[in-house]
Structure formats: C-alpha cells, structure tokens
Amino acid sequence: MRVLTSDRLDRFFASLAQSWELRLPVLLPDGTRVIGSPDDGQLALHGGAVPGKPTAAFFPQQGTVFTADDGVLQELPPPSRPLFVLGFTPRDLACLRFIDRFFADGWRDDVYFRLRQNAVVAGLSGYCGPGGALIPPAGGNCDLEFFWDRNCWLVIPNSEAGEAIAAELPDAATPEAMELFRQASAQLPDENELLIRRASELLRSDRVPDSFWEEIGDRCIACTGCNLACPTCTCFGVQDWRTAKQVERSRMWDSCQLDGFMREASGHNPLGSEALRTRRRIHHKLAADPEKWGEISCFICGRCDAVCPTGIGIIAVARELVARFG
Amino acid sequence: MKRTLTVCPYCGTGCTFYLVSEGGRLVGVEPSTTHPVSRGGLCVKGWNAFAFVHHPDRLTTPLLRRDGVLLPASWDEALDLVVQRLRAVQKKHGADAVMFASSAKATNEENYLLMKLARAVFGTNNIDHCARLCHSSTVTGLAETFGSGAMTNSISCFDQADVILVIGSNTTEQHPLIGSRILNAVRNGTRLIVADNRRIRLSRQAELHLRHRNGSDVALLNGIMHVIIAEGLEDREFIASRTENYAALAESVADWTPERSAAATGLEAGVIVAAARLFAGAERGMVAYSMGITQHSHGVDNIRCIAALAMLTGNVGRPGTGVNPLRGQNNVQGGCDMGALPDLYSGYQKVSDPRLREKFARVWGVAALPETPGLPLTRAMDAASAGLLQGMFIMGENPMLSDPDQGHARTVLENLELLVVQDIFLTETAALADIVLPAACYAEKEGTFTNTERRVQRVRTAVEPPGEARADWEIICDLAERAGYRGMRYTGPAEVMDEIAGLTPIYGGIRYDRLNPHGLQWPCPDRSHPGTPILHIESFTRGLGRFSPALHRLPAEIPDDQYPMVLTTGRTYFHWHTGTMTRRTHLLDREEPRSFIELHPDDAARLGISHRDRLLVSSRRGEVRTEARVTTMVIPGVVFMPFHFAEGAANALTNNVLDPESSIPEFKVCAVRVEKLP
Questions:
Q1: Interface check A228 vs B, CB under 8 A
Q2: Which residues of chain B lie closer than 8 angstroms to A243, CB-CB?
Q3: Quick check: A190 pLDDT over 90?
Q4: Extended strands (E) in B440-486
Q5: Which tens digits make up the pLDDT trace of A105-122?
Q6: Which of B397, B405, B406 has its CA nearest to residue B100?
Q7: Residues on chain A touching B5 (C-beta within 8 angstroms)
Q8: Quick one: CA torsion of B585, B591, B595, B601, rounded to 10 degrees?
C-alpha cells in the first residue's frame, strides 16, 4: 500500500500522462462532475460516483465499428496510448466486472476490448463520497484503488499494472489502518441493497401485478436516460452512413424503453407499451440476469434515479414495489 | 476528448448539456447536472442531439442552379450572386419585392443580423420567421392584454402551482422536461386539468380531462369564466387594483352559461363547472398552453381568454401562477426578441415609431430605415402568389413542409425570380432554390439562444463545420460587406450581443461574460440587473392588465358530407418539425419511421380500416397517402397527423386561412376525407 498526498496529485497524474491517456474525475465549468480528460476541468476526486455512465470510457455513446473504403474493410487502429481511468466507485467496479464478462462471453466484442484490453482501471473509495461520506473499499475488481482516509490517498495496487504505477509512490505509514476502515464500512447500513434484493424476490415469485407497471409506465416519458446512464446497460443500435466512396458503420447506445427496440418487421411489438417496456427493463436486471449470470445486474449506483425526470429510477420503483407488494 | 457546454437545439425548454467530442467528432452528450431547468436529465431528442451533426448529407459547399441543376460553387461566386440578384429584383420590382425569412433555430445574434441586413442594407421590413406559424397569436394577444408577449413565469414555477391548467399542449412530448415537472408536481399534490381532446400522457394524471371540440377553446374558456363570476369566485381585489375593462369581460361572458358552453364544446356542463371551481379555488393557479391554442383562425382570441382567466382569478405576477405559452423551438423566443418580425425591431420596438427608427438608423450608420411594417411570412406567400414578391432569402426554414397548403407553397417558391436558401441540409425547400448556402449547425458556432422562460444562454463551438460550411452570422456579415455596407464587421457573436444590448432595453444587461453558467432571464435592463424570473409582479408591463373579451367563432373549415372529418396536425415526440435533423438521427427515425394518421376505433370500424392499413387522406387542398394508426388517442370524428414526413405530408392537406390579427395559419382544424387504399 502506497500513499499519495493531495499536493502531489497534479504531479502524479502529469507523470502518468506520459504513458497513458488519462480519464479522471473533473469538475466542468457549470459544476457537473464527469470522468473526463484532465483538460476538461479541475480534478475532482471527491463527491462519490459521477453522474454519467462510467463504463462510457470503453463503450462510448457513439463509436465507429469499421469503415469500408471502396469496398475494402478498414478496421479501427489500436488506440495510440492505453487508457488510465480513475473514478469507479466499488459499485461501478462491480458494474464493469459484469459488462467485461458480458462483452467477453461467447463472441468477444472486439470494439469494446479495443479500448478496454490494455486499460488500467482505478477505483475511488474512502471518505470521499458526497459530503465526505464513507465509500467502502472495493478490495478488488480494479488495477489499483485510491482510498481517501481523510488526510491522504492510500493507493492499493491489485494487479501488475497497478503495482507498476504505484511503485513510484512512498509506502503508507500505517497499512493496518485499512482494516479499521473495512470494519467501519461493514457497519454501514445498506437499505437500498436490501430493497433491491427484496424487489428481485417479488419479481421472481411473480408477485407484482401488471397494473403496477401500467402506473409506472404512465409516468415514463421515454427519455431513455435510465438506460443511457446505467453502467450495466450494454444494448446498442447500429447505423451505416454511406457516401459515394465510403461506408461507415457506427454503433450507439440504445434503450429498451423505446418502442423500436423490440418492434418486429411486421409492426407487431411484444413490448408495445411503456408499461411492458418498464417491466422488462427492471425485470431484466432483477430477475432475468440473476438466472443467467447468478447475480442481480443492478449494483445500486443510483444513476437511473438521478437522471430520470419523473422519479421512476430502479431504486424508486423498487421502493414502491416493496411497499405495496412485499 | 473534449466537453463543450451548450444548449439543446430542439424545443424551447432550453436544457443544457455537454457535447462530448473525440478527435473533432461528436460521440455523445452528457447532461448538465446543475442546470435549473434540466437538472441532470434530458429527453430522448436531447440525448440524441449530437447524432445528425456529421451526417453525410450535410451541405459542405455553396450550390448554384445551372441549367436546372444545383452544382457546387465557390463562396465568392455564390455570395456575390446573392447580392447581385437580390438587388436586381429590388431594382425591377421595388425594395419590398424581397423577403427575408429568419430562423428560430439560429442564434439571437444571427436573427438580429439578418433583421439588420434586411432593414439597414436591403431597405425592407420584410423580415419574419417561423414564430409566425407557432406563437404569433401569443405575441399579439399577450402584448394587448399584459404588454409583453412572453411566458410570464419560470419553469421552476410548475413545482409551486396548486392547480395547473394545460390547454392545447402535449407537454410531455413537446416540452418533455416541463411535462415531467408537471407529472412530478401531480405526484406531490398539484391538481391538474388537461383541456385537449387527444388522450395525451398528461391526461392520464389529470383530475379533469376536457376533450372539447377542436376550435372551441373560446367557448370553453368563456364558459369557465362565466361560472367563476356567477359563483363569485373571481379575485375582486386583483381585478380592481391591477386591471381594466373588467365590465366588458363580465358582460361578454354573462350569457356563456355552462349549458351553452357545453353545447359549443361537446362537453358535459358539469365538467365545465368543475373545472371553473377547481381553477378558481387554487391559491396558485397556472395556465400552460401551446399550439393547440395558438394555431387557429381565432388564435389571438384564444389568448385573450387565457389572459382574462388568469387575471380574473388573480393568477399573475406570483410564483406558481401565470400565463405560460410554451415556445416550441430552441430560439423562437429569441427570434422574436431580436426583431425578426416585420413590424418590430429587437426588444419589440415598433418600426412605425419615428424615434425608434432614428435610434436604430443612428447606431447602424444609415440615413433612414423603412417605415412601413413588412409582410408576415404567411402573407408573403400570398403576396408572391400575386406577383408582388419576387425574391426570398430563407435562412434555416423549410416552408415546403412547414407551411399550410403545400401545393400553394410549392407553386409560390417555384415561381419566384430568386430563391436563396441557407441551411445545414438540402431540405425540400433548398432543393427548389437558385442558390444554396451551407451553414454551420448549433454545435459548430458561438452565440446565444433564449428559452421559453426568457433565459438567454450561451451556445458554444464543439466541433468545426463540415467542408466549407460557415456560421450563419459569418455568412450574413459577408453578404452585408459585399452589398457595400460597412456596419457589420464584428470580431464575433459577443460583439454582436454588445450591439444588441445597446439597442434593446430588455437585453440591456446581457453580456457574454454574465451568461455563465446558466444565463439570465430578460428583462435585464442593465449590467447589474439579476434578470427577471417572473413578469408583472407589481404592475403589468403595460400598466394595468386589460381584459379583452372574445367572441366564439367557428374554425374556417368545418366537416361536411364531402370532407366529413376534422384533421388536426402536430408533432410526435421523436421528430422535430420537418425532420431535417431527427430523420437523420438513427434512433429517432427508427421510432417513427413513416407518416401516419391517428383515427378512432369507431371511425376505423365504420370505414373498414384496420391498424396499419394504407390510407388516402384528402382535403380541398390536396391528398396524401399514409398509414392508419387506430387509437383512442383521438376522439371519434377527429384524425391527427404529424407534419414531419415529406412522404405523406400533412401540410398538403391543411388550410391556409389566417388569423386576421396575427396571420397564424389554422393548422389545427381542417376538413378531410379518409379512405382505405386498395
């Protein structure tokens, strides 16, 4: 375990920028926090999870899949430098682990792994949550973790790449303190975790009537923000742009809240209402994924709740669902 | 990777987001989490607002028509030719034989500059823009009653209302981040009245859903006001201290009993009474409306009644109240503010006032400015048809799809001596032009947009324009220079805004350095003024609010044996107006890929029509082929069509009859016949 003081952050990241394409939590001019380029704004490690989809670093909202010039396929060149991405909370890291497995399972998604393959992923934890709240340590799922102990950043490498990056930093004086932080974290109540688990049980035992989804669907304006902010949503649409000499295929984040997502060529749509689509979205995370992958694929990051203009993010829906049915 | 804070180019809500770019290409958007309106959210169009920008159809070079074909040309050649041919038309037919159409999609600075170009350089007041088609009746009606034709309150006021009356606005689809506030307000106890005969999403949460006949708004509102006065629910103190001409209103609605109102609207009398009691009983009652109110041959009368209802119940000048026209386009408020109107300079200063003409002439460095108000856009088409207008310069508008009676519009545009179109894509209108100038889109230039709550916000350059395309403001300044005018040399849009501020009292304190991060709401008369979230607090802009009674008039064309159904037109959630941008956005076009018409299951059964059947829809103006959408969204006897689609264009059917005062067309009511195609 190493240590990094606040006054050395700029120098540390400037040094990293020699070899890596940096993506760090920064504060944009209007106060919005994002994982972005250091040029975008002031470094902002404190404040907890960023509002945007953190996995966008490897799976951007829109990106080229390939181009074909005069009928000859041009694959994307590898990135000039690998990515170093800091800003994943432990919950975000769980999301990343989930989609890493998803994108690798069976047919390996080369467009995703083009950026993900050699990237270094760094977690953020400690007393750097909103208002100084404690974010429990991740203890894995990343190359290295930055833990704020209220005085300095404890840097904990978990991989060879992480070790190499942390190597230049001085050793932490009291590495055993981490155990105390782990114990403190274990005491944290996690009502949302219990809520999501209970909602999952209710869905899997078919205890939620269609009328509930009608009510929720009536409040959905189909903005798609829940999908676009969700770190475990990986669905994408594909488009081809053609000019006289070139075809460019790109893909963009899609949303299962859209009618066109499941509409059949006949015009029939098995998910032809907001109620059915909302039910499916939440059912997928809380009931279908546990059967397929053995775990709920909502890691309770809260992004869909924050981005939804009408208050029907997954935690809000789970709360209503549990209050009424279970 | 770069992030650029800017304003959404779609509706007038004015959400802001960061455009995310990588290597000079846009790759996504990220909502602003601190913005007072969007608060970290966006609608589906906002989330996809980056996606059309690099489309291969973008115009990248000027085009000139040679032997009937549009061919690439240089900027020098194209711009010189624009000036030369505009001058030639004016020389032959007079200064007012040319018309400039500005754009609610362009920035304030660009609207101001095109207005200045028309007036100072080409000596005509023939300048207008598509506000003529959406809220010209608001500008006229509210100017008369309140003295200011803009939304009285702020979007945050939706959170504070006790009762909201939404009339003629499908808010969750057309102003989604305002519609979502209304949904949230209802969850928190606000009571909602929806007056709109389509079964829009908001109606599912409404305490009262009034599905009144198309074009019967005056009858409905007069009926409501009758009940309020008859039951003594009016705010006498407000009426006495803040308004004038109340007696005329009271007399005008005296015989609008609930029964008479019911007969005219098709509603139950009891529902009208209930709506009156609910609205008048609110401590804070708010009205929000949009095209369902304005786009009628009696649009101004509709506004007069809404203004009267608000004053009658004392609901003006306080948080959670007010008359709130929801402006449709990203900068339609700004287009009006900037004087892209035939009778007004920027800040609603009348061209007919000699002192104002002198003020503008002095600053612009010209000897004199034209005195006679110019032609509204809608009347310009008729003037062209009569041969009085021979040249049009159209910036960022597509009247071939957006104007009523497409056949008429096409004939007019095709027969002009000169048609110049400046746009980002080769629209249906640009395809008819003699000269096409390629413009930068919102993501490729600096400037400001003004949203529906009068918030002036910065638009910023995220990426470079494609090919040789240039920002509208640069093109306009270049045209002025080539026309021999030396008063349009600016270092950039910030300097244009300084000039606007100097000439425009309501924008007097607007400077770029004051607009970070989330803008200022006009009136903002000086550099220390914090902006104005709510209008008419102490007194109305005109002093006393004026009650202007209105008589109920039927729409110009009502169904008959030959054309037995009412057609009403509008937009869908996923497309924007004539589809120039959204039909080139993969996810949005996938949602609504083709023209359709909504008709009620009873009508469908009667006509032997099934869902998705191909239909022929005809009116006295023309006919279109489209697809049936059988739904209870509409009431029996009424069909609805969106006007986005070139193939199946709703405006081939609509009626080019205008409100006599505002010149807004009656898009919301015409008579059609619907038949199943074999």
A1: yes
A2: 56
A3: no
A4: 447-450, 455-459
A5: 988 999 999 999 999 999
A6: B397
A7: 28-30
A8: -170
Distance of CA B413 to the CA centre of its chain: 22
Residue A232 tokens, joined: 């475990």
pLDDT digits (tens, 9 = 90+) for A67-107: 999 889 998 999 999 999 999 999 999 999 999 999 999 88
Token pair 């660009």: residue: B110
**B19: closest chain A residue by CA:** A61
Q: What is the pTM of this model?
A: 0.97
Residues 6+ apart with CB under 8 A from B251: B549
> Is A249 in contact with A64 (CB distance < 8 Å)?
yes
Report the gap between the CA of B352 and the closest CA in chain A (Å). 42
Pick the residue of A65, A223, A238 with the most B CBs within 10 A to test the interface with B by mutation.
Answer: A223
If 0-12 CB within 10 Å is exposed, 13-18 middle and 19+ buried, where does residue B249 land?
A: buried
ipTM score of complex? 0.97
What whole-number distance in Å separates Cα of residue B445 and Cα of residue A231?
32
Helices (H), B422-525: 472-482, 493-503
CA distance B458 to chain A (A): 12
Non-local CB neighbours of B271 within 8 Å, separated by 6+ positions: B208, B210, B262
> What is the domain partition of chain A in residue ranges?
2-186, 191-325
Give the contacts of A38 (CB within 8 A, at least 6 positions apart). Answer: A13, A17, A22, A24, A26
Look up tokens 């609608």; give the residue. B43
Beta-strand ranges (E) seen in B414-475 are 418-423, 435-438, 447-450, 455-459
Q: Is B184 in Cβ contact with A310 (below 8 Å)?
A: yes
CA dist A309 and A220 (Å) reads: 9
* B159: chain A residues, CB-CB within 8 Å: none
Alpha carbon distance B532, A97 (integer Å): 49
Containing B410, the helix (H) or strand (E) segment is helix B406-415
d(CA B651, CA B75): 34
Query: Which domains are assigned to chain B?
Result: 63-127+330-521 (3.40.50.740), 152-326 (3.40.228.10), 565-676 (2.40.40.20)
- Put simply, whether A240 touches B (Cβ < 8 Å) is no
Nearest to A17 by CA among A77, A60, A81: A81
Tokens 């074999």: give the residue. Answer: B678
Contact A223 B43 (CB under 8 A): yes
- Residue of A29, A62, A308 lying closest to B5 (CB–CB): A29
Contact A221 B50 (CB under 8 A): no
Q: What is the 3-state secondary structure (H, E, C) of B128-194?
A: ECCHHHHCHHHHHHHHHHCCCCCCCCCHHHHHCCCEEEEECCCHHHHCHHHHHHHHHHHHCCCEEEE
User: Which residues between 132 and 191 in chain A have a beta carbon less than 8 angstroms from any beta carbon of chain B?
Assistant: none
* Region B497-506 average pLDDT: 98
Strand partners, B56: none
Residue B639 has pLDDT above 90, yes or no: yes
When CB atoms are compared, the residue of B30, B43, B183 closest to A52 is B30
Contact B405, B654 (CB under 8 A): yes
Q: Which residue of B has its CA nearest to A83?
A: B1
Residue B271 C-alpha from the chain's centroid:
31
Please, which residues 306-325 of chain B have a Cβ atom closer than 8 Å to chain A?
A: none
The one-letter code for the residue type at B187 is R
B2, B54, B179 ranked by CB distance to A221: nearest: B179
Q: Of A87, A189, A90, nearest to A141 (Cα)? A: A90
